[in-house]
Amino acid sequence: IESRNVTNVVVVVTRYFGGTKLGTGGLIRAYNGAALAALDHAKVVRYFPQVMLKLSFDYELSNLVHQVIDKFAGSILESHFDQRTTYRVSIKAEDEQAVRQSLKDVSSGRIQITGDEDS
How many other C-beta atoms are found inside a 10 Å radius of the C-beta of residue 57? Predict the structure, then answer.
């Protein structure tokens, strides 16, 4: 793991015993080789801490909300359409204040924004 310069990763290697005893050194080399091969073929995915927001707004603002969420590469996890539209969205934690400000700006403050845990 260290030689591949990755963090927050787990490598699981399963060895099915086939009758050949490898000894301590042989086992270390076998597991090391298998782990390196797995890491070499793995796709590295960057993780960004996320925050959840609940948005409540008039349906007519939907396109503007989508534009802001798309601009910040956020995801709409749930949507409910009633008298007001409600979205539960996931965005990068580092973008939270910018998203809140953008939503406020495009809607003249007509979008109610709460942290998901507040709902």
Answer: 19
User: H/E element holding 114?
Assistant: strand 112-115
- How far is 41 from 31, CA to CA, in rounded Å? 16
Distance CA 84, CA 60 (A): 10
Q: Which residues pair with 35 in a beta bridge?
A: none
Query: For residues 115 and 100, what is the distance between their CA atoms, to the nearest angstrom?
Result: 11
**pTM of the predicted protein model:** 0.67
CA distance 107 to 72: 17
Domain locations in the chain as residue ranges: 2-41, 50-118
- CATH code assigned to 50-118: 3.30.70.240
* Burial class of residue 20, CB neighbours in 10 A (0-12, 13-18, 19+): exposed
Residue 119 has pLDDT above 60, yes or no: no
